[in-house]
């Protein structure tokens, strides 16, 4: 498993795709520093920057870039064939790749959110945002890795989920909130730093559904990889 994880990490950071991870975290920290430097009231900028940019855009987009990249490119260019020839259980391929995606997404998102939370309010808010981002990294990464095995357009499908389901329906249609990873992240962050963020689902729902996304997507991804033939097609 460690070999697969090493190869995955090396391949991920060896592509230009890794450069796409930098602009949003830099933008978030820059905006937070700018607002703090000009003494803008945190109540005026914390939610738009930390939630609107950080949790609603930076976290899922980072997970989308990384989650679809750890395996999707190998499916597209056919190198998945070489992986499938190895005498490895399919879970020993999926799990290390998922672990790499989770770690990279969590670090890339949690660090700027922690800094932004500290600048806006306190270390407690920063910690809440960082923990929420880590949970979100697990759920988003598992979902987007699965999408890379289900469709040849995982980025497009992922963007539809982020922009339409979470960004539009998840905010205005009450029944869709229970299937919104963004809402789980906000709820978990608010539990650590109460009365700062507006939550729309309960903590038990957030925890259980986040686990469902992680476990369900991972199990489905392992099963999906088993269906790949040597030519890279599914049976």
UniProtKB/TrEMBL annotation:
<feature type="transmembrane region" description="Helical">
    <location>
        <begin position="47"/>
        <end position="72"/>
    </location>
</feature>
<feature type="transmembrane region" description="Helical">
    <location>
        <begin position="154"/>
        <end position="173"/>
    </location>
</feature>
<keyword id="KW-0812">Transmembrane</keyword>
<feature type="transmembrane region" description="Helical">
    <location>
        <begin position="201"/>
        <end position="222"/>
    </location>
</feature>
<keyword id="KW-0472">Membrane</keyword>
<feature type="transmembrane region" description="Helical">
    <location>
        <begin position="127"/>
        <end position="147"/>
    </location>
</feature>
<dbReference type="Pfam" id="PF12679">
    <property type="entry name" value="ABC2_membrane_2"/>
</dbReference>
<dbReference type="GO" id="GO:0140359">
    <property type="term" value="F:ABC-type transporter activity"/>
</dbReference>
<keyword id="KW-1133">Transmembrane helix</keyword>
<protein>
    <recommendedName>
        <fullName>ABC-2 type transport system permease protein</fullName>
    </recommendedName>
</protein>
<dbReference type="GO" id="GO:0005886">
    <property type="term" value="C:plasma membrane"/>
</dbReference>
<feature type="transmembrane region" description="Helical">
    <location>
        <begin position="93"/>
        <end position="115"/>
    </location>
</feature>
């Amino acid at each position: 498993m460690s070999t697969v994880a090493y190869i995955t990490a090396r391949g991920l950071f060896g592509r230009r795709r890794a450069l796409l991870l930098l602009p949003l975290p830099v933008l978030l920290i820059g905006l937070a520093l700018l607002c703090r430097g000009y003494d803008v009231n945190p109540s005026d900028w914390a939610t738009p920057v930390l939630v609107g940019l950080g949790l609603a855009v930076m976290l899922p987009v980072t997970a989308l870039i990384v989650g679809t990249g750890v395996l999707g490119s190998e499916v597209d260019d056919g190198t998945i064939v070489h992986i499938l020839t190895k005498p490895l259980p399919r879970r020993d391929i999926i799990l290390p790749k998922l672990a790499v995606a989770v770690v990279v997404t969590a670090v890339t998102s949690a660090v700027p959110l922690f800094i932004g939370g500290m600048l806006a309010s306190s270390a407690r808010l920063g910690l809440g945002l960082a923990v929420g981002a880590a949970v979100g990294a697990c759920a988003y990464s598992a979902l987007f890795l699965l999408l890379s095995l289900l469709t040849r357009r995982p980025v497009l499908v992922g963007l539809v989920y982020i922009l339409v389901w979470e960004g539009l329906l998840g905010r205005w249609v009450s029944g869709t909130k229970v299937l919104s990873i963004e809402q789980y992240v906000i709820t978990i962050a608010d539990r650590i730093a109460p009365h700062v963020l507006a939550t729309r689902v309960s903590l038990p729902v957030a925890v259980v559904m986040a686990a469902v996304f992680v476990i369900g997507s991972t199990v489905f991804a392992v099963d999906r990889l088993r269906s790949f033939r040597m030519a890279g097609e599914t049976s």
